[in-house]
Amino acid sequence: MSPAFKSIAVIGAGAWGTALAQTAARAGLEARLWAHEAATVAEINTHHTNRVFLKDVALDPSISATGDLAACLGGADIALFATPAQHLRATLVQAAAALGAHTPVVLATKGIELGTGALMGEIAAAAAPGHAVAILTGPTFAREVALAQPTAVTLACADAALGQALAQALATPHFRVYRNDDTVGAQVGGAVKNVVALGCGIVAGLGLGDNARAALMTRGLAEMVRLGLALGGRAETLMGLSGLGDLALTCNNDQSRNMRFGRALGQGLTPAQALGDPALGLTHAVIEGVEGAASVGALAASRKIDMPIVAAIDAILHRRAGVASTVAALLARPLKDE
What we know:
This protein is of the alpha/beta class. The chain has 16 helices and 8 strands. β7, α7 and β8 form a beta-alpha-beta unit. α15 runs antiparallel to α16. The longest helix has 23 residues.
């Protein structure tokens, strides 16, 4: 553990935030976890579990939970945010006054803000000015992280020394942290992969086969790179853990909420039916690809960036486009060079 960092406040006690608090505790940090729900706070503190989001996972008893945002952040050396993308701005605005003057903000939230097209780092810069920002992202299922199964992630930070210190503070033998200074590329990968994964679920639900899913993933990666380059990111970042790695994980496994949700749509369920089906396990879940399709699609349209897969998924989710006819229209697009 880096001597510079002794404590961490993790804001958001969903599956990912809880798993990151677990990892931080394993790394030797004093881990505090903020939860919106009083019942979750009580359960974590009393039983050391969070059964709604991480069923059958025993949490490190040193993790303390609170519903008081200021108390969680007060005196913390690192502030890590793992809230849903569309709630990050409001949470940061509320948290800003409680942040220490030099406390770095680590964002583990993936997405692009609806309405503004802002990346999560841009939101942090506006809501908590003066605080260094780092992006923690990569191919991760929260349950596997919480159970200390081997995982590799990207930590992107413009300040190389700070990035190294944060990586050292958060790393464990089972949680390998690779540093990068391309914060834009790292954020674009995490935002777009949710949308493509939802599309892969639709393909699977329609029974179109693994060839079609591989094609969708590959062309989705091309769209991801196109957007990343347009926003100032680097292609090589999107070929690493935060882009291709995250895409491969999320598009090939039903642990992915986006994949399960898309599969249900491909099988003929409406979004409301998919979210309400207890067998799918999505009742308490945030499906980031749903709002992501709208926010990424709008950003691409505003920049005149060609992202037909994202546009098609956005049309299915938000413009009442038929699933089968939209997929057929994608397949009928004019042939082009790769």
